[in-house]
Amino acid sequence: MRIYNTLTRQKEEFIPIVPGEVKMYGCGPTVYNFMHIGNGRTFIIFDIIRRYFEYRGYKVTFIQNFTDIDDKMINKANDEGITVKELGDKYIKEYYQDADGLQIERATTNPRATEYINDIIKFIEDLIEAGFAYEVDGDVYYSTKKFAEYGKLVGQNLDDLQAGARISVDERKKDPMDFAVWKAKKPNEPAWESPWGLGRPGWHIECSCMAKKLLGDTIDIHAGGMDLKFPHHENEIAQSEAVTGKAFANYWIHAAFVNVDNKKMSKSLNNFFTAREILEEYDADTIRFLMLSGHYRIQINFTKELLDSAKSSIERLYNCINNLDNLKSEVSKKDINDQEIGYLKSLDKYREKFIEKMDDDFNTADAISVLFDLTKDINNNVNINSSIELCEKAEALIRELGKPLGILQNHMKKDLETEIQELIDKRQQARKDKDFALADKIRDDLKNRNIVLEDTPQGVRWKKID
After folding, report:
1. SS3 helix, strand, coil % of the chain, rounded to 5?
2. Binding residue positions for Zn(2+)
3. pTM of the model
């Protein structure tokens, strides 16, 4: 298996620290608002990486944190007149609802930063003792110049980073690029006792501490969105390696952004969507299909048209599963014969191809293409003359290859039929009301999903075409 390592800027053979095991840390949400679709893509990517390692037989320990104390949370809690803890509790619950809706499996552990305050304080004490941090008026800063390799993740030296960074002026810092690992208490902020007075941790130190505490000094994989590469992940490396003297993570994986209608998602452009809003209109299989239809390191475009296309595509895959389900109740032959055993063996090439694509830096786009080739083969060769056992094993293979992607595990047949019948009824009513524009739109929308309506003397019938 080869993984593109952001740190070395090349694909590398994956060699775990402990054979057969993967220790993975993914930066989770700051819990002050609902998950948006950009977060959704990143968390789906974490999910398929974890799922695929497990599919390949690895034991995965996956840690995804909740940042439940930071400036945004404090401001939002003060605006709403509630405590930061109440705000965190609320949006952690909302996160789980959205993650479940997107068919994202729960992490091994979801630590909250506020649960590790004593460990964070000890971590900062170790930084100070090692000469990498200093205290000023109750604040503690990391001294970036003390870490000779600062900037190695983004491939820039300290001077270049400083020239391009937006730095808040603070004359108390020894260097403009130094960053806070502990912040002295301000009015209307939660705070904890520390050797430097009442205060709270900085954002970057939280992840360094939780990763070390739960996974050890060196972890196999650290993952996150591309926006976290600098300064968050760069600072994590500097903190962690200063304390341990060891590599913090052997492989760094970063997921690219999501654009909406070819533009960067932002509230000012009115193209900002939460995962929950999208889930009200599209199911998880459809959303995941769109998110995985492009390589995780490449930006994807998110539009209603592309979602509709993804919905049509996932229905084509489910159509093969549904056809196999129907055949199981219609065929007369139960046990598989030698010819069918030979055919099943020929399908092994799709599993091998799927693994080949996913082993190449989790290439989900090409892996999905393999699924379409598999279903086409099955559609052409499994029929009313086949055995029940062949139908069952063909369906099992489709679902097996869909599982690492988190798709094709549901039963859509009845839902699809119900939805289409409701649209047909709506079209018929529109025709009665002489609203021909609506009737035509319904017909055209179904056609775009490869569903063709036929007006017959017995009523409207529909069929799915490839």
Report:
1. 50, 20, 30
2. 27, 207, 232, 236
3. 0.87
